[in-house]
Fold each of these.
Amino acid sequence: MRQLQSWRRDEFNDLLSLAQSNHVVVRGLSEFLNLTSCPEGRDCLRWVQTALDAERSRIAVCLRYLHSICKCFEDSGRDITVIKSLDHWPDFGSDIDLYTGCDAAEVIHLMRRHFNATIAKRSWGDRLAGKWNFIIPGLPEAVELHVGRLGQTGEQGGFASSLRGRSICVQRGGYSFRVPCAQDRVTISTLQRMYRHFYFRLCDMVDTAALVDAGSIDFDDLLASAQAAGIWEGVATYLTIVSDYVESYRGRGLELPGFVVAAAKFGGRDIYYGKGFLRVPILPQSARLYRSQLAGVVGRGEVDSSARLSLFPWLATAAMLGQKLTGSDKGIW
């Protein structure tokens, strides 16, 4: 590996930007220091330490606000679960994500009254998915609250309603939080990566591999819950992609049960790198997963979820056209 001391500042800034977009600043830079040689007092060492200090300070502020929000909801008798944001610990996401089963009007009332929060402009996708983004004075990160539903079109009502009852308590930065169990973490990551964004961050690979390696996932329970949510094939594919990617770097993949590998529709060989992320091909791979999900909810007679999912291609098409015409999909996706 090239020594850090020989890097230019612009090269280090590029590395830092990549680490930030992949939510691995703390883990990445800490490990980078262990793998490189940089004499004490050199500029390179100061760059790394300054970046680490800044990121840890940002995370400390996020945790303080996150704890206050959770305490506010719990003291008011409302359920609240932290999703995604704490999955990357000791790193932290670029915003604060939470799920609650209470009414949207209650959410708005609590956020306005206790945090003087304002509601960010909602896109078509936000409205369909039941998402609300709040801006809190003093907090640079947005607070994204998923209200009663999960999934790009809000199709995951049943799965969302079971989230709190299956959640666990974790300690992070001196605070206690309720987070999804390991199986539900994988399911939420699958919804985000395989059914919405169609790309992986490095943190997705690292976080999921750590769960599997630690033996934290009950695969039988994951199978049952993912089948009930109608995305078992997507979950199996997600895990297989992570396993293949990990194998390409450490020489061995994840220890996945045979029924997981058998259910996967494609693997790591189909993903590719583009624009800073590992991309999942939309056609035909992701399109097949979508059709399977839609066929499942239609077959089970889930009218509301079927109607929501049927809007997904139109929403995606509108977002793609908006991106091409204006350079942004804001207001749509």
Amino acid sequence: MKFRFVITGILAAAFVGALYWFNFLFKPNLIKTIISSQVPPPSTVTSEAAKTEQWIEQLASIGTLISSHGVDVTSQVAGIVTEVYAASGSDIEQGGPLVQLDVAVEAADLASAKATLAEADVAFKRQIDLIEKRVTSEANVDTARAKRDTAQAAVAKIEAVIAQKTIKAPVTGRLGIRKVERGQYVSPGMTLVTLQALDPIRADFPMPEQAIGKLRVGQQIEIAVDAYPSKVFKGTIESLDARVAQDTRTLLVRGSLPNPQRQLLPGMFANITVLVGDARPVVTVPRTAVTYSLYGDSLYVVKALDQPADAIAGQAAAAPKDGARKLVAERRFVKTGQARDDRVAITSGVAPGDEVVTTGQLKLNPGAAIRVDNAQPLVRPEERPKQ
């Protein structure tokens, strides 16, 4: 009996030991081996080689278009409007008539003043003739001369009032909405119509003080407006302000650009780009290739699995003899420069010729196996119309 109990205990201990070994040693190692042997399939991505482009440094800003000579045409004197020559929205040359005020009273005064001037002129000539014959005094001549000059001044004054009541365009430009009609009473200083000189037109825009050292009068600028989204207007910097705004730490810059077709109007919102210096070579990649984060900007570079880790950046990997390259994604931190359209400049981290992942990088980890398929590259969508 005792022997049976011993045998039973030994068998039970062996069973418990085998069960412990299977559950806590053999089974975990088996699962680990199976999992490690199951390699995930390569992720499909698209790629594009980094390339060198000639870029001119650009400084971007937002500004407002203003007229090169914009005025509110007003009247210096009061009167009733008798004629309106200005048509709203029409172009007019400098000196062209806009509004005529009633000059009936001034015309009558002018006729009287001219008659007085004629009489004074005759009297003065008579005194000159008498002084030559020595039958009058110098005092009489001086008095006649003063009367003639006074009459001339009266005529000139009335003519000036008549000229003030004939309101003309001070510059060549385009008229705004007319604010007067025939028969309306006009008081001094009242705005009759606005006049804007549109060719050339100016653009005022601020630039940060860090960029002041790069700005020069005569530099080229490019302007885009929402009214003509597919067109770029070109001009030059006309002047720089003499001080930096204390509240914004920006310098006001004024540009000038030709506007022969009068497409640009004062008050338009403008996206302005200043072209600085000459074109220089930069390494660029598609914008979609770069991942931006607080820890630094990065992208993935396609590398062949058989390519040495210390291979020169930009050197193409040698393909295996069977022609099937095993590719992996190598993550690189980069420094980005200016962005232009759908490309961004890379100042460090990528060399020309490096094949970078352009789509599909969100599912990648460093060293992940990838498969490049550029059969359906990423296409930039059409710009949606602004509401």
Amino acid sequence: MPHRARLVHLPPRRGRDLCHQAFRQTLDVLRITDEALEDLCCECPRLPDLDSLVLRALDEMTLGEPQGRTRSPSHVFLVHARQDEFEGMLYRASPQGFRPVAPPIRLTADETHAFSVDAEDVTVSNYRDEGTDLEAYQARFHPEVRRLVGEPIRNYVSYRVAGDRPGAIIAFNYPDRATRYEAQVLAALAVTLGTVWTLGSRVAQVEEAFVYLIGALARASEANDEVTGDHIVRVSRYCEVLARAAGYPEGEARVLAYSSQLHDVGKIHTPRELLRKPGPLTPAELALMQEHTLHGEKIIGTSPRLAMARRIAGAHHENWDGSGYPRGLRGEEIPREARLVKIVDVYDALRSPRPYKPALSHEQAMEVFTAGDHRTRPDEHFDPELLRIFRDIHEEFRRIHAEIQPW
């Protein structure tokens, strides 16, 4: 018998059905959550910026359909706990999406009662259903929120955000009325933000432990040397100051600062008597000493989290003119962070006592960076641009050294 196709009558499109739209918008927000978690897995510990995540989610919920097919509130207020108080950020809808209206607003716990911060579920409120007039309805909202909204608040939907930083999402002034369907969308966004805030707290704790362990490893590597943990701390502080002055973004400057602590980690393989020898090294001893750069690369390994530390350990004794070690790199062949650490390391070495020399004053050290000495030729050994920046901010180095010294 020949196969006969069945005619299937599909239901009409439900583009204007609020329940259908709320379900679709919830899926959009969950997709954003999944992408944010993927970012965390690939780029930990860089947490996606919370404000950008909020804006992205809000825009997906309201701008994904042609105009008139998605009900959008006029404003969204994001409230979260900050120590003993709450902080709220107000966003206004625009043709380009939601955008911040003003700096964060500080709120006391008493000022959040209308936003269900302590409630277990959602609040949907329309002033016509409250048995009060529009003017009296305004009294439940923070004066600064009322001012920034710029028109009477007629309705709102609020949903509690759980997690390490509790708070709430409040959407104001939906067209006509606020409904339970809008609340479903806010619920999905609340889950997203609660997850991100909780992960952010955990990532911060892991990051603190990671940085501490780097410092511990660095101090262990210096145990056989005459230098102390103060050298590690000073080098880190110098690096952050110089990196900021050289235009590094704040996050990269911080990574450079803690990575710099491992610049001499390879010395853990250098014989103690060689590190503490009071006289000049023989050629064989010098070759053995120089191997600490290669040992450092091996110890640090290939973890992406420690890529900068590895580059610094392997190249911080290279010279701008190609006369350094271990590979004789020249100019911009040398990683920029290693060029920066070289300046910092030389400065602190000049200021520190060694078995073969006394400590120099700041003025004496700066004279070496200007005219050179029997070991250092500044115009040939250092990146010219970084050297110029260092000379411009050298008083910061004097201040840091005065704050952190064992003698």
Amino acid sequence: MIVLGIETSCDETSAAILIDGKVKSNIISSQIIHQRYGGVVPELASRAHQKLIIPVVEKAIIDAGINKTQIDGVAVTYGPGLIGALLVGLNFAKAFAYGLKIPFVGVNHMQAHLYSNFIGKEKPEYPFVCLIVSGGHTQLVLVKEPFNHELLGETLDDAAGEAYDKVAKMLGLGFPGGPQLDKLAQIGDSNFVKFPRSYLSEDSFEFSFSGIKTSVLYWLKNRGYYPINENSKKLDVQQLSDLCASFQAAVVDVLVEKTMRAVEKYRVKHLTVSGGVSANSELRKRLLAAGNKSGVKVFIPDLEYCTDNGAMVAVVGWMLLERGVTSNYEIGAVANLSI
């Protein structure tokens, strides 16, 4: 079975070709226009997707070494995400499938992240716990069997990735600032500032990262480093690195503690991590170490599959199409679709 996967939920236009469950191409075009605005502008994202969707899909087909008439099905993200961005990919997929008279299936973006660890040669065994951590979501999910999920907890306010980007903006690191913050943190002292860790109640799997974001803001304000202007004090490179390391340590402590608590409670032997923040070096290192200590196998996608990509959509589409699941042409984009 040859499946075309399409992803346009936010600011990446991506398409991938999957042949019998193996990725043959995965094209990702990121939109740099949003950097000047310090965040994703929905209308600009939609327009960029319209310009990019055809060349991105064509390149995915060419790189896979196939002809479009060989494609057996189309999988496309239909939510959650930016409604205008979702509609570009969804409507293209409908037209593409209709023109070739092949089935298409709508894919839940969060499920695509959840199953992104099935792209590799080694695959987790059911049941397993999955930590989905990205700019828009932070969730712990118990996966009992294919497409049988129990949401254990999610963020009550800012997602971890959102907190990263907002703190990076406060520090003048630009957008998206998460990767730059992670890079600086690697040469910083995580004990420089003892930022609060929000664990909520002892048995809770919910998350909250707005408090640490606010703590960073007041630390900067109280010392004259924020707001950034010609009159504000400037952090030197070491101070900036130490501050990044301190913030990152607080976020990662919470993510690791709650994730391993879920693993222990549900007695699973496999743990998966996915989403854009799964590319974070400290999170990867800490979870791998925690898994090794507990005798739990930890699966983390290759960096290419951490951020939004068509391959993870194609994988879920392939799993659904193999089970005879398809979507009709009345399916619409759902901005707040739950997992």
